[in-house]
C-alpha cells in the first residue's frame, strides 16, 4: 500500500472518532486537530532534473601526416626561410632552395659566398642580440666555430619524420646508429656517404701526359722530385678543407704532410677557395691539383684542359667511406617553423632525391639514404656505395666518422701541425 493512501485513511479515522465523542456529550473542549507533516518525496514521487551529458574531448591527431600538415601551414604563415651557405653549396645548391620555395610557397633567402664570412656574420650579429638566420650550410670548420659560439640548436627535437632517426636497412646504407658530423653529436646530421679515394687528384692535360698521369697510383707518387713546386691545393691550415686534411692525416700520417709541404713544396692557394685552385690548374699555374670540390669538373665540362686521375683508379692507399654533411639549425631562428620544415624535408627521402636530381654539382656524393635513386651521382661512385654495407659487415672498409672522438682529435692535431708548417714556409693561413 502506498504511503499517501495510508495517511489519508488515518486522517479520516481520527475525524470520525472526534465526531463520535462530541455526540456522546463528553468533554466539550474541542479535541485539537493533529498537524500532519507531508512525507518527504521519494525518487519515485519526484525525479531530480537530469545532468547535462558531458561533451566528449576530441583526441588530437598525432600522426606524422597531421604533424606535417600543421608544420607546413605554420611555415607558410611565417612566409620566409633564411639560409647561410658556404662556397661549394652556394655554387651548387641554389636549385634545391628554389624547389623548396616553389613547393611550399615561402620565400627563401640565401646568404651565399664564403662559409667563414657567413659564420663571422652570424656570430657578430648574435653578439648584438640580432638573430637573422634559420639554417646554416657552411663547411666543417665554420660549423665548428658556430658550435663553439653556442649558435646552434639541437636537431633531434626538430625531427618529426620517423624515417630520419629510426635507422633501418630499408632506408640507410649505414644503419647501426645515427651518424653526426659535429663533435657533440647533436647539431649536424650526416647526409651523404662518400666512398672514394682519400682526396681527388686532377692534372692539366697540356702539361702532364696521359702516361705520366697513369703512373700516379699512390699519394706518395706525388712526392717524386719531378712534381716539386708544381702541385696546388686548397689551404688546409685555415678555415677550409678540414675534412680533407683530417682524412689524409688519419690514413697517410703526419710524416706525409711534412714531405708534401717541404719536399714537394705544395702550393696552398688560400682557405675555402676551390674555384681559385681549379682556375689555376686550367691556366697552367700548377701541373697537379689536390682537391677542388666540384670546380674542376665544371671546368672539364667547359672543355678546359683538366682531367682526373682518381676517377678511373683506386689509389694504393684504398678507398675511404666517410659520412659527410654540415647542415645545421641556428639557435633562436627568426622563422622556427620554416627551419623545422626545411630540416625534416632535406633529410627525407624526397628531399635527398631532389638534391641528387637537380644539384648543379657535376659529381655529387651519394645520399646516406639507401632509398634514394642515383640521380647525378657518377656511375663509378654509385657502384661503390652499393657495396658499402657488405664491406662494413666483412670488415673490409673503414668508416671515417666525422662525429667520432678520433676524428676530432685528428682534426686538432693536423691543424696544429699544419699551422707550424705554414708559419715555417711563410704561407698564408687564411
Which percent range describes the beta-strand content? 5-15%
**Widest sheet: strand order?**
2-1-3-12-4
Helix content: 40-55%
H/E element sequence = HHEHHEHEHEHEEHEHHEHEHEEEHHHHEH
Low-confidence stretches: 1-40, 42-46
The number of helices is 17
How many strands, what sense, and barrel or not for the largest sheet?
5 strands, mixed
Shape: globular
- CATH H level of the largest domain: which superfamily? Periplasmic binding protein-like II
Average of the residue pLDDT scores = 85
CATH topology of the largest domain: D-Maltodextrin-Binding Protein, domain 2
Number of beta-strand segments:
13
Provide keyphrases for this structure.
about 425 residues, alpha/beta, D-Maltodextrin-Binding Protein, domain 2, 2 domains, five-stranded mixed beta sheet, about 40% helix, globular, disordered N terminus
How would you explain this protein's 3D organization?
42% of the residues lie in helices and 11% in strands. The protein is globular. With 430 residues, the chain is an alpha/beta fold. The longest helix has 21 residues, at 3-23. 40% of the residues are buried.
Summarize the helices and strands and which ones pair or pack.
Blueprint: H1 3-23, H2 64-78, E1 80-85, H3 87-92, H4 94-104, E2 107-111, H5 115-127, E3 135-137, H6 140-148, E4 152-153, H7 162-165, E5 192-196, E6 201-204, H8 210-214, E7 231-233, H9 242-252, H10 254-263, E8 267-268, H11 274-283, E9 288-290, H12 295-301, E10 306-308, E11 320-324, E12 328-330, H13 336-347, H14 349-358, H15 379-386, H16 388-393, E13 399-400, H17 405-425
Helix pairs in contact: 2-13, 5-6, 9-17, 10-17, 13-14
Amino acid at each position: 500500500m502506498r504511503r499517501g493512501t495510508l495517511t489519508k485513511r488515518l486522517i479520516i479515522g481520527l475525524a470520525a472518532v472526534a465526531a463520535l465523542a462530541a455526540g456522546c456529550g463528553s468533554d466539550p473542549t474541542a479535541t485539537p486537530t493533529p498537524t500532519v507533516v507531508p512525507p518527504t518525496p521519494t525518487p519515485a514521487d519526484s525525479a531530480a532534473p537530469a545532468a547535462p551529458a558531458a561533451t566528449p574531448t576530441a583526441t588530437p591527431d598525432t600522426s606524422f601526416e597531421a604533424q606535417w600538415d600543421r608544420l607546413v601551414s605554420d611555415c607558410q604563415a611565417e612566409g620566409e626561410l633564411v639560409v647561410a651557405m658556404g662556397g661549394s653549396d652556394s655554387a651548387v645548391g641554389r636549385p634545391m632552395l628554389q624547389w623548396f620555395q616553389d613547393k611550399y610557397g615561402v620565400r627563401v633567402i640565401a646568404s651565399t659566398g664564403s662559409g667563414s664570412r657567413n659564420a663571422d656574420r652570424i656570430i657578430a650579429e648574435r653578439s648584438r642580440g640580432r638573430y637573422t638566420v634559420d639554417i646554416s650550410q657552411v663547411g666543417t670548420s665554420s660549423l665548428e666555430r658556430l658550435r663553439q659560439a653556442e649558435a646552434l640548436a639541437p636537431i633531434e627535437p626538430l625531427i618529426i619524420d620517423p624515417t630520419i632517426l629510426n635507422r633501418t636497412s630499408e632506408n640507410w646504407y649505414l644503419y647501426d646508429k645515427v651518424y653526426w658530423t659535429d663533435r657533440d653529436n647533436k647539431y649536424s646530421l650526416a647526409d651523404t656517404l662518400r666512398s672514394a679515394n682519400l682526396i681527388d687528384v686532377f692534372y692539366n692535360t697540356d702539361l702532364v701526359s696521359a702516361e705520366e698521369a697513369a703512373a700516379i697510383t699512390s699519394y706518395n707518387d706525388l712526392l717524386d722530385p719531378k712534381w716539386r713546386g708544381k702541385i696546388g691545393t686548397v689551404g688546409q691550415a685555415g678555415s677550409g678543407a678540414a675534412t680533407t686534411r683530417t682524412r689524409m692525416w688519419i690514413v697517410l700520417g703526419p710524416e706525409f704532410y711534412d714531405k708534401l709541404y717541404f719536399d714537394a713544396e705544395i702550393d696552398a692557394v688560400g682557405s675555402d677557395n676551390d674555384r681559385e685552385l681549379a682556375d689555376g690548374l686550367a691556366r697552367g699555374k700548377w701541373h697537379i691539383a689536390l682537391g677542388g670540390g666540384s670546380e674542376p669538373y665544371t671546368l672539364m665540362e667547359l672543355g678546359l684542359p683538366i682531367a682526373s686521375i682518381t676517377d678511373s683508379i683506386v689509389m694504393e692507399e684504398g678507398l675511404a667511406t666517410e659520412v659527410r654533411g654540415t647542415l645545421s639549425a641556428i639557435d633562436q631562428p627568426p622563422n622556427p617553423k620554416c627551419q623545422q620544415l626545411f630540416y625534416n624535408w632535406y633529410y627525407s627521402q624526397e628531399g635527398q632525391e631532389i638534391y641528387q636530381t637537380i644539384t648543379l654539382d657535376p659529381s655529387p656524393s651519394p645520399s646516406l639514404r639507401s632509398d634514394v635513386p642515383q640521380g647525378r651521382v657518377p656511375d663509378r661512385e654509385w657502384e661503390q656505395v652499393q657495396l658499402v654495407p657488405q664491406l662494413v659487415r666483412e670488415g673490409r672498409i673503414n668508416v671515417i666518422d666525422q662525429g667520432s672522438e678520433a676524428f676530432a682529435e685528428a682534426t686538432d692535431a693536423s691543424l696544429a701541425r699544419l699551422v707550424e708548417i705554414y708559419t715555417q714556409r711563410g704561407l698564408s693561413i687564411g
